[in-house]
Specification:
Helix content is 29%, strand content 23%. The protein is an alpha/beta fold and 370 residues long. It has three domains: 43 residues, no CATH class; 174 residues, Vaccinia Virus protein VP39 (Rossmann fold); 106 residues, Rossmann fold, CATH 3.40.50. The strands form three sheets. The chain has a six-stranded mixed sheet with strand order 5-4-6-7-10-9, with helices on both faces. Helix 8 links the parallel strand 11 and strand 12. It is globular and about 65 Å long. The chain starts with 13 loop residues before the first strand and ends in a 6-residue tail after the last strand.
Length: 370
């Protein structure tokens, strides 16, 4: 692996805690008839011994992923977050906002406009600085957080939403590790990063999205008589109990990766043997390493359906599995649909009643673990 310097504190003492070998870039979707081979890069997670930030090793240059359709679950979560902020008084008196965009979409600006909060367009400070799943995509984590902190006006707040590392470890979400996602935040590590930038945590809210995400509000230090809410201390206590800074704890992710890939392949082989037609749904980046580690090709999974037109006519990286539109789900419902993004279940069941009406079913790809 060579010498790796922490993306946040520049420390060089740490541990490799997850190694998925060489994997195709998860955001490089080749044309359906592109024969490959697709470029592959090491996919490894490293845990900094100094600041506790879990992070991607290496920095491959890859193409930008075609923009997917924004799922209802992400839209609903943004609505919920803004409502909680308003109820808790975090929007009171704050009328200027800067939003750092995420490649996953999910802008809050329209929702905040309804609350009387307007975007700053001149590059100046703001009462609210928001980052929802955006900062993880920056290879220089120290500079990324410093930039966001610099935009916080006096009396303002920085709001960071992230897929929490305790969720990733607790649920065995090994395929959260992917190229282009450079950091995996525990609340403990993020609090330390904030304090290094003169910010202190104030309140945290939990959400069910992705199995467990956190919205953390921070403000400028020092502020007299202001201490973190119990919600922050609860998250810190849970981090300590789970051991998110203990390299040994990450071993369960490595084991889960092997069992998950084996479980997926065994299930698909059994379906083919039984003569059951299976399609996938959701050409998501999280599915790339899973399909490749499981050695799944179009003989086992003939196609993956995605509602994003920008992905139609392409194929999944590292495989020959084509990405198609949703028409086939309606005209020729398969016996089973393998869902690669569990958060989509509610909306896809409503959008495609033909699946269950014809006797088929939706199968959570994340649950197929040997």
């Amino acid at each position: 692996m060579g010498n790796h310097a922490c993306r946040s504190c520049s420390g060089q003492s740490g541990h490799q805690v997850l190694d998925l070998g060489n994997q195709p870039a998860c955001d490089h979707f080749p044309g359906r008839h592109d024969p490959g081979p697709d470029p592959c890069y090491p996919l490894q997670m490293w845990l900094c011994s100094s600041c506790g930030l879990a992070q991607l090793v290496g920095e491959p240059t890859v193409a930008e992923e075609p923009r997917g359709a924004e799922p209802e679950a992400l839209v609903g979560q943004a609505v919920d977050a803004v409502e909680r902020l308003a109820t808790a008084g975090w929007l009171s008196g704050r009328r200027r906002v800067v939003e750092f965009a995420s490649p996953h979409g999910g802008s809050w600006l329209g929702l905040l406009a309804d609350q009387g909060v307007s975007p700053v367009t001149d590059g100046g400070p703001a009462d609210l600085v928001i980052d929802s799943f955006g900062m993880m995509h920056d290879p220089d984590q120290g500079a990324a957080l410093a930039e966001r902190a610099s935009r916080v006006a006096p009396g303002g707040a920085l709001l960071l939403q992230y897929h929490s590392l305790d969720t990733i470890i607790r649920l065995g979400q090994w395929n959260a590790l992917r190229h282009g996602h450079f950091a995996y935040y525990s609340t403990s590590a993020l609090v330390g990063m904030l304090k290094a930038n003169g910010l202190g945590p104030r309140v945290a809210w939990r959400f069910d999205l992705y199995g467990g995400t956190v919205l953390l509000a921070a403000s400028r230090e020092p502020r007299p008589h202001v201490t973190p809410d119990t919600s922050v201390n609860t998250l810190l206590s849970e981090d300590a109990r789970l051991g998110v800074c203990d390299p040994a704890v990450f071993g369960r992710l490595q084991g889960r990766a092997e069992a998950h890939a084996r479980g997926l392949r065994d299930w698909l082989v059994a379906q083919r043997t039984a003569g059951r037609n299976v399609l996938g749904y959701g050409a998501a980046s999280r599915a790339v390493a899973l399909l490749c580690r499981a050695g799944v090709d179009r003989r086992l999974l003939p196609a993956i359906v995605d509602t994003s037109p920008s992905k139609h006519g392409l194929r999944m990286p590292g495989t020959d599995i084509p990405i198609i539109g949703p028409a086939e789900l309606v005209t020729q419902p398969p016996h089973a649909v393998l869902l690669f993004v569990p958060d989509l279940l509610t909306e896809v069941r409503r959008a495609f009643p033909e699946i269950e009406d014809s006797g088929g079913g939706w199968v959570d790809a994340e649950a197929l673990c040997a």
